[in-house]
Specification:
Blueprint: H1 2-27, E1 35-38, E2 44-51, E3 54-62, E4 85-88, E5 91-93, E6 98-106, E7 111-120, E8 125-131, E9 138-145
Antiparallel strand pairs: 1-2, 1-9, 2-3, 3-4, 4-6, 5-6, 6-7, 7-8, 8-9
């Protein structure tokens, strides 16, 4: 009987080790995306937050005042870029811990693109892929998480 118990114990231990070993990947969630993020050149901060079961991105701070001068709607060209929603409409894909099927508005050219979001480097980097139709034909922007001591007082976060 002992001959059968030891192999069974080893098999159970191996299975438990595989399950526990995979848990850090499963522990990530949609909430890991929430918070403040620097744009690529660190001249602006955006906030990702929950929105009706999804997520949205809002501009929160910029190092200089700027307007939405390239907006295709002439009535919106004088609005401030601070406070605009530029990411919206995403669906969370838990299996891959990413947001997909969303939209991103690029104020540099006034165009809106399809988008998806993923995390890298243990949640310190947000990768936003903007594309037209197929993700293969697009561009990835990387946003770095804002450290608590870096948050400008004007944000009031």
């Amino acid at each position: 009987m002992n001959r059968f118990i030891n192999p069974l114990r080893r098999l159970l231990f191996l299975f438990a080790a595989m399950v526990v070993g995979s848990m850090p990947a499963l522990a990530q969630s949609q909430a890991d995306y929430h918070g403040l993020w620097w744009n690529e050149d660190r001249t602006g901060i955006v906030e990702l937050k929950a929105d009706d079961g999804g997520i949205k991105g809002v501009t929160r701070w910029g190092d200089k005042p700027d307007t939405d001068r390239n907006n295709p709607d002439p009535a919106l060209r004088d609005r401030s870029l601070k406070g605009i929603t530029f990411l919206w409409g995403f669906t969370y894909e838990a299996k891959k811990n990413r947001w997909k099927d969303g939209k991103v508005y690029d104020p540099k050219n006034g165009k809106t693109y399809d988008a998806k979001l993923s995390l890298a480097k243990g949640g310190k980097i947000l990768k936003m892929r903007g594309y037209i139709g197929v993700s293969l034909f697009g561009r990835t922007a990387e946003f770095e998480r804002v450290a608590t001591e870096e948050i400008p007082a004007s944000i009031g976060y």
